[in-house]
Specification:
The protein is mainly alpha-helical. It is 52% helix and 12% strand. The protein is built from five helices and five strands. The strands form two sheets. The chain has a three-stranded antiparallel sheet with strand order 3-5-4. It has a two-stranded antiparallel sheet with strand order 1-2. A hairpin with a 7-residue loop joins β1 (38-41) and β2 (49-52). α1 packs antiparallel against α2. The chain is extended and about 65 Å long.
Length: 151
């Protein structure tokens, strides 16, 4: 399994990087919207052409847009393993609450010695499931409100 990136802090662009990222994002946006791949030509080595498939263009545009706005950004592989504190921070919940979710079996984990490790992909799956449950509960509440004439 991959470990969480060695990057301790998210990347935040400085002013110069943000300006470059803004220009680059504006150039890539039409290709990303059209679902097209692009070819990057290195200015210092024009004979080097780097093809980027359409999905990579979307990812690069996302990174550049965040950099242009000087928003912190991190890249985490789906197979990365997080500590319980990292996972709690990602989900924006307390560590004890996360532990209770793990203990109830709502989020899978593995033990490394006496420490729990959670796959990032499992956190994403939990988020999707949780969002779906919330949507369903809201739909049921709205239906009940309509049934009772409270709308």
């Amino acid at each position: 399994m991959l470990a969480l990136l060695d990057q301790a802090e998210p990347i935040v662009a400085d002013e110069a990087e943000a300006a470059i990222a803004k220009t680059a994002a504006a150039s890539l946006a039409p290709a990303a919207r059209a679902g097209q791949g692009v070819q990057l030509v290195l200015r210092e080595q024009p004979n080097v052409v780097v093809p980027l498939p359409a999905r990579a263009v979307e990812v690069v545009l996302t990174v550049l847009s965040a950099m242009a706005e000087r928003r912190p950004i991190s890249v985490i592989p789906h197979e990365a393993e997080l500590t319980t504190q990292q996972a709690a921070d990602y989900l924006n919940v307390s560590r004890p609450f996360l532990i209770s979710l793990i203990d109830r079996g709502e989020i899978p984990h593995r033990m490394v010695g006496r420490h729990r490790r959670l796959r990032f992909a499992d956190l994403l799956a939990f988020e999707r499931t949780s969002a779906e449950k919330r949507k369903q509960a809201l739909a049921e509440m709205a239906a009940e409100a309509r049934r009772l004439g409270l709308d």
